[in-house]
Amino acid sequence: MSSFKKALTASTPKLDEDDSDLFRAAVKGTRTLTNDTVEPLPARQKVRQKQRRQQQFPEAEVSRASSDFFSDQFQGYVAEGTVKYVVEGESHYLLKQLRRGDFAPEMLLDLHGLTLAAAKQELAAMFKACEKQLIECCSIMHGHGSGKLKQQIPHWLIQYPGLRAFHQAPKEWGGDAAILVLIQRRD
């Protein structure tokens, strides 16, 4: 027997007969509890579930997409009054339709309070979801004021290859705190 085990058994006090009887009397009539909740999974199954979840929601792919699509150094949009932009080759009538609210957003993305890096990832994830669900119009809420998000989002949007146009949202979709974005459908 190791010295640790000897020390452990030596320091453990022995129960005398009276204490043992008192304990038995106290727990008399009780029964063992059965676990009516979900049984804990063995470690191997936990790892498999985590791998399945990562396959369903590949965060690394979204992170890679955000760095592929959006550069923080690119400043291709010059803000002059209302936030608006139409891709070359698209009709300028799209801007008027976006301004009037002719396109209702099918997806809303709220970026309030996010850092630039987190907002960039959320934007890339939104574009991936729009492609997957064949969504044409979405609304990006960046908030009021002249913060970094409000300034940076148009620069990122211009870099997205599937962009058709964007315009400051009409009042019912967020006004100057949001941007309506029109995306090419990839059927």
Architecture overview:
- The chain is of the alpha+beta class and 187 residues long.
- It has one domain: Ribosomal Protein S8, Chain: A, domain 1 (2-Layer Sandwich).
- The chain has seven helices and five strands.
- It has a five-stranded mixed β-sheet with strand order 1-4-5-3-2, sandwiched between helices.
- The mean pLDDT is 78.
Q: Total number of helical segments?
A: 7
**Helix percent band:** 40-55%
Structural class: alpha+beta
Number of domains: 1
Name of the top-level CATH class: Alpha Beta
**What's the total number of strands?**
5
Order of the strands making up the biggest sheet: 1-4-5-3-2
Largest sheet: 5 strands, mixed
Mean pLDDT: 78
Secondary-structure element order, N to C: HHHHEHEHEHEE
Q: Provide the gyration radius in Å.
A: 30 Å
Shape: elongated
Q: Give me the CATH fold name.
A: Ribosomal Protein S8, Chain: A, domain 1
Low-confidence stretches: none
Distance between the termini: 73 Å
Proportion of strand residues: 5-15%
Q: What is the annotated CATH architecture?
A: 2-Layer Sandwich
